[in-house]
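Database export, one record per block. Field names are fixed; values are copied verbatim from the stored entry.
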Amino acid sequence: MRKLKIVFMGTPEFAVTTLDTINKSEHEVVGVITAPDRPAGRGRKLNESAVKQYAVANNLPILQPTNLKNETFLAELEALNANLQIVVAFRMLPKVVWQMPEYGTFNVHASLLPNYRGAAPINWAIINGEAKTGVTTFFIDDKIDTGEIILQNEITIDSDDTAGILHDKLMVLGASLALKTADLISMGKVNTTKQVFEGDMKSAYKIFKKTCKIDWDKPINEIYNHIRGLSPYPTANTTLINNDEIIFLKIYKVSIIKESHNYEIGKLLATKKELKIAVNSGFVILEEIQLPGKKRMAVAALLNGLKFSENAKVR
């Protein structure tokens, strides 16, 4: 069994669970690469990534390059003398970086590759109504998420899973798979499979502002999946028209009822206990929303303070 000296690369909370798992294993984490601190909030205070916070708390060496091809950074990276690099939710690496360690660089990706290559695999799996997804480890090459697959682990997507719930499930699953992959590498027992790109491959391109707008003319199941696939971030939204008032509304949680009706699509129906929207073949019942300048709230709290006209609708 070969001793692994690992450089870990990642930035968000999703990566921390894997870093913690590797750090607590028999393998040695010799350095952590993460994004530079960035100003955030009204006071523009520098915000440290979740990975950096973990590395600081556990006394792990940290590098925060702005340019991954910078000669000073490359010299510092080489000086860590790692023989393996693990990447989770970081950015695309130049060849000079991913080829540096003796045993290569592998990535943990939150989908069953080759489907859902790209930045938002968790969101798109739910938006597209998939019944299953998973995590994949693969050796990085010169393109995005195209390298040879090492291991995969599959998971069922429950009908009420949101992107946030699935994120947490895959975060734990990915950490376990990363450790199994590192163990195989240390034992010299890795067998890889080339990705085959054919047929109707599904991608996981970045979520844009226009992606978050709800199209109420779509089938009811597609609307439901769209909302839960963007919850809690970046959040599906719509425009509520109530008399002369136009309100931008973020929608976090809904349920659906399938039944025939004669209401116009987008019509808002309010009672003292319920707020629902007429769509094709049924109603979308709003459960958790957010108004401009307010916190996320249960719809029951909104109904106590906001009156809706007979002509209220969303668009």
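Remark 1: The CA atoms of residues 29 and 44 lie 32 Å apart.
Remark 2: The chain has eight helices and 16 strands.
End of record.
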